Amino acid sequence: MRKYDKFLTIGLFILEAFYFFLIKQLPEKAARYPLFVLGLMVFLTLLLAINTFIIKPKNVEDKESDQFKGILYRQFFLIITLSAVYIILIDIIGFFVTTAIYLFVTMVALKSSIKWSIVVSILFPIFLYLIFVSFLKVPVPRGFLL
């Protein structure tokens, strides 16, 4: 796993350099938030680099063999499929209705309780509506339902 962490760390630094190049083309005021996000990304990548390249873990073989133990590939591919269907249905049904349905079906598929699935699938789209549509005035995809 450490080999993949090394590739990931180097790839993230390359991506962040490209991101920095794109941010420098923005006006100063517009670049503030992207620079903040970039700073967080660089900080977290530095933590990953320190953990990967400097700190030597104990019992690497035991840790790596147990890391993917218990992964359910059927659930993984179900979530990938549900995400693809979600992306397709956003423009057809509408962002908020599709998000509520996606959250409910995904949480049930991941064996969450029905009560929490219903609560989250109702409250989270309302939260998104209040933040993005009401407060930030961001347009969202509208379908035939909403």
UniProtKB/TrEMBL annotation:
<feature type="transmembrane region" description="Helical">
    <location>
        <begin position="116"/>
        <end position="136"/>
    </location>
</feature>
<feature type="transmembrane region" description="Helical">
    <location>
        <begin position="7"/>
        <end position="23"/>
    </location>
</feature>
<keyword id="KW-1133">Transmembrane helix</keyword>
<keyword id="KW-0812">Transmembrane</keyword>
<protein>
    <recommendedName>
        <fullName>DUF1468 domain-containing protein</fullName>
    </recommendedName>
</protein>
<dbReference type="Pfam" id="PF07331">
    <property type="entry name" value="TctB"/>
</dbReference>
<keyword id="KW-0472">Membrane</keyword>
<feature type="domain" description="DUF1468">
    <location>
        <begin position="12"/>
        <end position="141"/>
    </location>
</feature>
<feature type="transmembrane region" description="Helical">
    <location>
        <begin position="76"/>
        <end position="104"/>
    </location>
</feature>
<dbReference type="InterPro" id="IPR009936">
    <property type="entry name" value="DUF1468"/>
</dbReference>
<feature type="transmembrane region" description="Helical">
    <location>
        <begin position="35"/>
        <end position="55"/>
    </location>
</feature>
